[in-house]
Every structure is written in structure tokens, then in C-alpha cells.
Amino acid sequence: METKTISLKDNETKSWTNLDIGVSKKVISTNAKKAFVKKPKWIRVKLPTGKKYSNLRGLVDKYKLNTICSSGSCPNMGECWGEGTATFMILGNICTRSCGFCGVKTGRPLEVDWEEPEKVAKSISVMGIKHAVITSVDRDDLTDMGSIIWAETVKSIRRINPGITLETLIPDFQGIHKHLNRIIDVMPEVISHNIETVKRLTREVRIQARYERSLGVLKYLKSQGVNRTKSGIMLGFGETDAEVIQTIKVFNNWTVFTTI
């Protein structure tokens, strides 16, 4: 222990007093620099640039389209749009559900835009896309859950873009078969429905969804002869390896392709 002398001034008497204090040699200065940890390269997102990005941005603005890329605040938007690819989101950009992982706004959606199918189809034509991915917000406020606009969008895309292939990433339509049938009837090459997480975490991650209902949707699609069905789960919510493997096994039993 070292002893140091400091001087203190009394503001009332204007006098100075010397005090001796003990200072441990083990005390580390609060001004010491903290160890710098370099962030990994993959965590840095490049600013969107390039001709393809600008063209796609222009089309989205011109036709007042929604994409899950922008509405969902996807950090990879610059990379995908820079390659001229995007996932179109139909039925507006306000969702009736409030999944904890999703950046899309929750609330009361606006009126359905019945010209949206044509707008999306024309944009795809201008972009020269050979394979398009379509998704949507949940529309539990509509009696058809948005399934009619879904079907019309697929029809419009096929009419204006002969030879195109389509992946439709659909909501669960509350598991109602007549709504699912509208998607099945227009025969997109791939019908996807994401289960998002393992059973134990579903209520926390997808508060208005049900694990069994999503499985039921996928099972129904297969039972109706849909050749290519697909689902996806995210990692990082606290799931165990065993839970992930069990979920994949369930999909494999129904020949549902899984993405992680």
C-alpha cells in the first residue's frame, strides 16, 4: 500500500487541508483501454449500390410494390437486389400477426389492391426474372385470408411471363382447406410454408400461430399431390440440437424439403 497526499479546499473558510490516503498498487486505472475485439467480416453489411439495385429500386417505387426485403428490414437486401433478385410480398405491408422475429408492421391492413397481381407480373417481366418467389403478410381480417389475390397473382404472372417458374411462400390460411386449394389449383412449382421454429418455442416466436396447424398445412399439401413442398426453421431462439433434428425428421416423413 502506498500513501499519497492530496489537498482539499473548504469553500466556506477558503482554507486548504492536506489528507494522506492509502492507494493500493493493484488498483487498475479506469482510463485503461479495453481490449479491442475485431468484429467478423460477415457482420458488416455493404451499402446497396449498382445498376441492378437501382433498377429494382425504381420498379418497386414505380409500381408501389412491397417486398419482404424492405418491409422485413432484411440486412441482405443490398446483396440480393444488387443481383437483381427480390421476394415480392403481396396483400400490403401490414400484417395481422405479430411474430417476434419479424420486422413487418403489425396492425389493421389497408384495403386490398386488386390491381396488385398485374403490377407484380409486369415488374417481373421488366426484370426478366425466370424464377420468382412470392410471399405475403397474414390477412386474418379477410374472409378468404387473401387466398383469392394469391391465386390471381400466380395467374397474372404466368400469363405475362410464359415459362416462368414460381415459389409461393404462403401463410397458414388458418389451416382452412378451401383457401389452400386455391393455391394448389394454380399449380406453382413450389409451395412453401415456414414452421419457423421448434414446437416448444412456437408460442414465444409465433404468438398467433400453432405448430400443429403449420404441420397440418404441409401434410395437406402433400396429400393433395403437391410435388414440391418446402418449409424453413430459424436457429438461435434457444432450441436444442435434438429438437431441430426431430423437426427435420417430421418433415422427412412427409418428404417436405427443409431449409435452415
Give the DSSP E fraction (strand runs of 2 or more residues): 15-25%
Strand segment tally: 11
* Main sheet strand line-up: 3-4-7-8-9-10-11
| Low confidence ranges | 19-32
Structural class designation? alpha/beta
Overall form:
globular
How many separate helices? Answer: 9
Q: What does the average pLDDT come to?
A: 80
Return the string of H and E elements.
EEHEHHEEEHEHEHEHHEHE
Oligomeric grouping of the chains: single chain
Quick one: biggest sheet?
7 strands, mixed
What's the gyration radius in Å?
A: 28 Å
* Whole-number count of domains: 2
Q: How far do the termini sit from each other?
A: 58 Å
Helix amount, in percent?
25-40%
Short description:
The chain is of the alpha/beta class and 260 residues long. The chain has two domains: 146 residues, no CATH class; 66 residues. The longest helix has 14 residues.
Overview of this structure, please?
By secondary structure, the chain is an alpha/beta fold. It has two domains: 47-192, no CATH class; 195-260. It is 33% helix and 18% strand. The strands form three sheets. A seven-stranded mixed β-sheet has the order 3-4-7-8-9-10-11. Strand 8 (165-169), helix 6 (177-185) and strand 9 (190-192) form a beta-alpha-beta unit. It is globular, with a radius of gyration of 28 Å.
Task: Note the topology.
Elements: E1 2-9, E2 16-23, H1 51-62, E3 66-67, H2 68-71, H3 77-82, E4 87-90, E5 94-95, E6 105-106, H4 116-127, E7 131-136, H5 147-160, E8 165-169, H6 177-185, E9 190-192, H7 202-205, H8 211-223, E10 229-232, H9 241-253, E11 257-259
Parallel strand pairs: 4-7, 5-6, 7-8, 8-9, 9-10, 10-11
Antiparallel strand pairs: 1-2, 3-4
